[in-house]
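Below is how a single chain appears once it has passed through the pipeline. First comes the sequence as given, then the structure the pipeline wrote out for it. We keep one example in the README because the format questions we get most often are answered faster by looking than by reading.
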Amino acid sequence: MKYIVAIIQPHKLDEVMKALEEAEVNLLTVSNVLGRGRQKGVTEVYRGAREVGSLLKKVKIEIAVNEDFVEPTINAITTAARTGEIGDGKIFITDLAEVIRIRTGERGGLAIG
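Resulting structure:
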């Protein structure tokens, strides 16, 4: 089991979610976050509005997947989120020791779905 965290540009969220759905990855958590990378406050244009500052608006997607879904998840995110410009984001992958579904008590891969 892996825990995948992706930080992407906000305007790419719909495309990423559609790509994940096509890869049969449906369970995810999405948060609006602020952050910065190498661009360190470079002006960014988001939906026609310029944003300047040391922290830029980003979206964080968190996904727990079984081993068979790791590569399809990564491919879906990178394909849909890529613009080729600085600030496209990052994907972090860590091992997931345990998952427990609260409702049923199922554990491990069964709890992920």
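The radius of gyration is 15 Å.

See the next section for the split statistics.
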